[in-house]
Amino acid sequence: MSTSLTSIQDVEQLEELLSEPTEGLVRSLGRLAGDIVVVGVGGKMGPTLARMAKKASERAGVRRRVVGVSRFSSSSLEDRLQAWGIETVRCDLLDTTSLAKLPDAANVVFMAGMKFGSTGQEWLTWANNTFLPGLIADRFRDSRIAVFSTGNVYGLSPITRGGSREDDALNPAGEYAMSCVGRERIFEHFSRMNKTPMTILRLNYACELRYGVLVDVAQRVAAGQPVSLSMGYLNTIWQADASAMALESLAFATSPPKVINITGPDLLSVRQLANGFGERLGKAVRFEGTEASDALLSNAQKSFELFGRPTVSVQQMVDWIATWIKSGGPTLAKPTHFEERTGHF
After folding, report:
1. Which of 219, 236, 225 is nearest to 325 (CA)?
2. Is residue 104's pLDDT more than 90?
3. Fewest CB atoms within 10 Å of the CB: 191, 231, 260, 267?
4. Are strands 66-70 and 36-39 parallel, antiparallel or unpaired?
5. Hey, is 109 helix, strand or coil?
6. Is the pLDDT at 2 greater than 60, yes or no?
7. What are the b/e assignments for 252-290, b being 16+ CB within 10 Å?
């Protein structure tokens, strides 16, 4: 994709960029056999990831079905996906009768899950994040499965360490993160039992212009609100790069699952990010709290060795987001709560 753009004009152009495949993904899907089903396509990343899979397949000269599965509470999203050439299936994933009717596919991307609102609905969080993975793993036992997980399973790590690695011990804080460990363990169980090749993708944090940790910081600066330093450092990655890596990971699926951290290469200071947005937005920056010696951080070196480094830099994202917010571009109004240290979402 082109990173020479100084700004992104509207949602249509943004979604084109978010669904633009890398050259590596085009090559990878050119070699990959079979259709792709995206389970949980209705989330923040799902629509443009499915569109990216379709684009990459077409550019590789491969005819394949890309199928998006969701409840589709928004019919406009379903219409948009179909306009992009993606088949859609409405499904309550926790209903086993509906699940059994889903089309077979050689490749599955599992994106369903529950995070926000998990505090107070712990029962539903565990059903979505732990029980559902067992249903999916059993239903698609003969497929390759790329499983979206989260860096929250690691817990906090010292800033000086440079981020958690895939072989680190897990130390989840709060029921959401615990249930995500449960998701990984259930998928691993079925992978080992049925020899189903899988990847487990520990993502933190995907970012675009309407959502993400950088947007959270920029919006606080723009509104004159204090920026919390309780989580003083973070990682982030352009959403299109994360989507491309997730799709490309299908070719690396193994049994037991291959675990891969997905994030950007930079350890970012929230203070420095806020000051950068302040300069671009012409706003004075206020802070609350102080930086701790630890944070939720991941080391994604393995993903760079497998897929290459992200194509969009943090500097580019910051510039685009500042211009977007200054011009009144729409957001999803879904804060990430990245500053949360105790795991209550």
Report:
1. 219
2. yes
3. 267
4. parallel
5. strand
6. no
7. bbebebbbbbbbbbebbbbbebbebbbebbebebebeee
